[in-house]
Amino acid sequence: xxxxxxxxxxxxxxxxxxxxxGFEEATPVQAQTIPLSLENKDLIGQAQTGTGKTxxxxxxxxxxxxxxxxxxxxxxxxxxxxxxxxxxxELYKIGYGKRVRVLSIFGGQDINRQIRALKNHPHIIVxxxxxxxxxxxxxxIRLENISTVVLDEADEMLNMGFIDDIESIxxxxxxxxxxxxFSATMPAPIQRMAxxxxxxxxxxxxxxxxxxxxxxxxxxxxxxxxxxxDVLTRLLNIQSPELAIVFGRTKxxxxxxxxxxxxxxxMAEGIHGDLTQAKRMSVxxxxxxxxxxxxxxxxxAARGLDISGVTHVYNFDIPQDPESYVHRIGxxxxxxxAGVAMTFITPREKSYLHVVExxxxxxxxxxxxxxxxxxLEGQQKAAMEKILQSIESNNLQFYKQxxxxxxxxxxxxxxxxxxxxxxxxxxxxxxxxLSEEKPLPMKRENRSNxxxxxxxxxxxxxxxxxxxxKPRQGQGQGGKRPSSSKPKSNSYR
Length: 493
Ligand SMILES: Nc1ncnc2c1ncn2[C@@H]1O[C@H](COP(=O)(O)OP(=O)(O)OP(=O)(O)O)[C@@H](O)[C@H]1O
Ligand SMILES: [Mg+2]
What we know:
The chain is of the alpha/beta class. The protein has 17 helices and 16 strands. Residues 445-493 have low confidence and may be disordered.
């Protein structure tokens, strides 16, 4: 069943924006939450990654803004700076028809610039907890007229230990405000947050058989720690992703991996919470534009980021908890597009695979790591496909004379073989440095999903997260390896 936005009671000004954004039908989470939200109900919204939760809270929030007023009426709290920027951009687009003013404020940006921007009387603020609190304390933000508060990626903010900050922020808002919590994952501890901050919350869980999007093909590969890098490069060569994200467990890991990939001729850069804000934003921008095609990230870049064109996600290290897995692979397969996710598992970490599968209710398919020969063969096939595509789509007239000349000197098979060789990335043994990552502690299966007692584990090594931005414009042709237009994920099983 499809739902049209006009059946949800949205104003014509907002309808105009949605049309401009190319939104034709509401996604299930939008269809189910927008009417409730328009009635000012408190809500917990859980739906798969990439299914439009931002607009689900954004559309009704924007629709209720009184643009004749100059007070802040809505606030969205997000766990990372990049996500705050991305959400504010989406809200800006939704509010374009009504001329709603949206401002993002986050750490790592000049506070005086933010104070100046606040003087333009934004209707909605989108920000990270620390910086919002900072402005509240400086009295540069007043929240006494807030009618809607959204906690995007609520479970992650709990994870990151933002609960006290959020509580302080909420204590400055009117008690009769509407509070909305959204995430693709809502593990048990989120209930406590709901009880604390919400009034009779309606829980909307978009019914799905699996927690992950069916459009993402999920594989795992059993790989020894020391072979991981070779396997990764072979997969990259065979699958030639348009844009890929490689997740590593720690910041050091991300630094070493992106450096190693560069040494082997890939256009890769790393992103994690230790980089400056300017660097993080520039890495993301390059990735979106396609001037780098492999983004190496800690979980930092996982939550909420919406980058179109990400066709492959590689979990170089298996994530520590199933929620991270869901969010990591959810960077592909967004808004109805297909994607491929591949997870490397060292023999000692096998139990983690089962925990993930149990939580997501979906089995990953086993893929054999490609051997060197298979990798070369796979690339050859990709090169052949590329040549055939070129024959189909290009006007080759200009090259015909040179081709004839070559064929006068050599037989056809030799000439074509040479072209194939040039389109194939041969084994590259440039030495790289990659410290061994210790395997995760063994898990006893029967208690592996147990979150009792300690509640949520804080993540101490990657605090802030990655960014925003529009769909990338040009198609980067970078990288030394041949690229074929379609992922070849199914060649190895
Ligand atoms: N009704 C719609 N029609 C078409 N595209 C949509 C619609 N709603 C949202 N989108 C687009 O789908 C993409 C994913 O949306 P969004 O980032 O809100 O997903 P999400 O559910 O918040 O995912 P995550 O759990 O990863 O945060 C965005 O590019 C968004 O603009
Ligand atoms: Mg989101």
